[in-house]
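User: Some background: our group keeps a shared notebook of sequences we're curious about, and every so often someone picks one and asks for a predicted structure to add to the entry. Today it's my turn. The entry only has the sequence so far, pasted here. Could you supply the structure so I can complete it?
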Amino acid sequence: MTLQQLRYLIAIAEYGSMNAAAYNLYASQSNLSTAIRDLEREFKITIFKRSNRGVTLTSEGTELLGYARQVIEQANMLESRYAKGDAGRTRLAVSAQHYAFSVQAFIDVIGECVTNDYEFVMRETSTGQIIEDVGSFRSEVGILFVDDFNRRVLEKAFTDANLSFHPLFDARIHVFVGEGHPLAQQDVIRPEELEPWPYLTFEQGSDNSFYFSEEPFSYLPHHRMIRVTDRGTMTSLLTHHNGYLLSTGVLSDEMQGGIVSVPLDTDKRMRVGYLMHKERKPSKLLRRYIERLSDIVRNNPSVEAFLGE
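Assistant: Of course. Here's the predicted structure to add to the notebook entry:
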């Protein structure tokens, strides 16, 4: 197996035909055909089904394509980092659910960085993508939550990706609403009081299952639902629309003054923690990010039990 063979595989899958892939890669069709035959012989599988209309992936080919994309992405990252002699560059990449405190810790670490040669990456993304990012070494760390409902499914996904989950804190579930919301002044909100209001949630893409939701109680029926992909839109909806979001209750500075956090009347809890690949040795910068993350949430009134290492 070579990187060139994997690149040919990806191109053929994307263009849907040998001819189109060869044309766009400035390669001969015979070279592409030979590369695919060699891969099929090496792995003892059939990668493509061929027809007059082009080629389509088999189920085994689809699985191989996923691995190929990860390998090529990692190879591209290696080339990008080392080809120009910048192996000593300071780097931190974080993939996280849409938690303002994870962004605040990220910003703080950037502010402490004294080197002139660095790369910082913050990806606020879906649960499935976080697992994929950390599992493929695209990100050093991932931030997400588990609870009694999603724990078994997520822990299996962690194991399959060779990841370890490190708890940071347990939090009582809170309701985020705008300060003008009719429920904003209550000391506690009962679940049935939320039924008349739109339920706000973060979109999870192709992994949009109840188990991969960022919000607890995702499995309950919601008559009115609004899905968004970014925290800025969510903040605008909370401040200008009478919807609600279920989360940890940890408010950031940017949310103060427009959004309030009210405890939900339930004995269910959220456990927030960070994911790391079991084969990754944490860098000094990553250790500092985790420390700063712990500092931010340690004494927050919404945190019932701080579990950070």
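Suggested note for the entry: The chain has three domains: 3-82, 90-170+270-306, 171-268. The chain has nine helices and 13 strands.
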